[in-house]
Amino acid sequence: MKQSEMLLPTLKETPADAEIKSHQLLVRAGYIRQIASGIYSFLPIGKRILRKVEDVVREEMEKIGAHEMMMPALQPSELWKESSRWSTFGSELMRIDDRNNREFALGATHEEVITSIVRDEIKSYKRLPLLVFQIQNKFRDEARPRFGLLRGREFLMKDAYSFDDSFESLDKSYDKMFQAYTNIFTRLGLNFRAVIADSGAMGGKDTHEFMVLSEVGEDVIAYSDTSQYAANIEMAPVIREYKKSGDEPKEMSKVETPEQRTMKDVADFLGHELKEGLKAIMFKVDERFVMAVTRGDHEVNDVKLKNLYSAGIVELASEADTKRLMGTGFGSLGPVGVSEEVEVVADFAVEALQNVSCGANEDGFHLRNVTPGIDFQPSQYADLRFIEEGDPSPDGQGTIKFARGIEVGHVFKLGTFYAEHMNAQFLDDQGKAQTMVMGSYGIGVSRTLAALVEQNHDDRGITWPANIAPFQVHLLSMNPKKAEQADLADKLNAQLEEAGIEVLYDDRKERAGVKFADSDLIGIPLRITVGKRAADGIVELKERVSGEQQEIEASQVIEQVKTWYKH
Q1: pLDDT digits (tens, 9 = 90+) for 345-396
Q2: 382 forms bridges with which residues in the sheet?
Q3: I want to staple 398 with a disulfide (CB 3.0 to 4.6 A). Which of 129, 225, 298, 322 is the partner?
Q4: Distances from the Cα of 22 to the Cαs of 43, 216, 405, in angstroms?
Q5: Where are the annotated coiled coils located (predicted)?
Q6: Do the Cβ atoms of 533 and 478 come closer than 8 Å?
């Protein structure tokens, strides 16, 4: 393919709005162009990469018996109302009205659509299990699109769905999909971890995220330093290893703490460590108010709080509600003498504390020598805090370390949530109606493309893995005005294409420095340069990653390229 005939605009300068390497390099190398915030066009070379990622995904999906289909991106609100997600999915769901004022959503995901299809078409257990998938653009109204392809409002996704006749069968479908995802990301050459995750707005339980390790990742992974355990920081449980001090409980007293607004301020003012204070935060959990109490040096994990109550929505209580219920602002909240309208729950670590400080529920005052179980009694103790580096690993092996990750895949055991809401049933072998059991499985294809660049680049440009590169060879004609160079380059281009080797032929009338810089930027694994020794039938072969180069006879190019791609 001749570069002079291709829409492949490269840039010398880094775009001002590109914060991370994948965004910078994909724009500079001519793979993508922004149309609006969070919305990108894939130029021809970018589309080639997408297709190669899609091909890997399709092959692994088909290996496990999943069949490709295509569903509409435009979805009627009636389906989302059946599942109840029209009101619970949140503001990220892009909603539109047609000319008849009928409500629609642009598909953020397709659980409702596929469930409606399967409930109408599958009536017998004999047709289960069923695995289907599609590769299609998705839409989410991100409040703050950023990082190029990593957080956009329109993105390419592979979504798959399983339908089974039992939870035992779902386990098998889930395991097949989990292994397929492992194969996909391994084939793509990514450094990734499968981590325990929260299902969020998807519903269901038992879910894993596939995280590509990267410093620019927006998610934090908690992993063991000696085992395979890994979890999203929101989901990692904390092992209970707290011992009470041998001190006797002292009499509680109230002290004035003027202008001390933070836990650190109060600890310094009262002369104790952060862990010797109680942190109390008010939440609205669905329709109830809950005060979550942790040790002063710990952070409340709202996902754990949500799961504790099996809640739909957990959000911080407003300042107005807090003052109405507690008579004080956020800075002086404490669990002693709490209104009956507020339930108090405490982290396991709190149970081991004695003679600590907390807010007095009066602006500018705190309590000293507070002992849980004596001065206040939570409704229950639970694992409510975020795990921290250095904590014991939840699997009992090693200690926890943190890494940042880019989520590229997510697998869910949905169970019967959608099937029950949308009446998706089948007849079992006894002729009795049963509810279908579902799974949902997604891969961010365009996001994976960005993750690949984050893990494969240097200071000159992208360094694509060999099996995913847009072309196998970048052929450069240094001076097309010279007949011997142009003729040899044309001949090599034809021979490479005839041999089935994907070649990008830079036949542009540009300076050598421009061609070399663009070649490094684009990142094709092998470069063949036709230059001054063209008359002798000698060309230069260079590896993009290692930088190793050698002069070879033009007649050996095909053999050398094929040998390199076999190793």
Answers
A1: 999 999 999 999 999 999 999 999 999 999 999 999 999 999 999 999 999 9
A2: 347
A3: 225
A4: 15, 10, 14
A5: none
A6: no
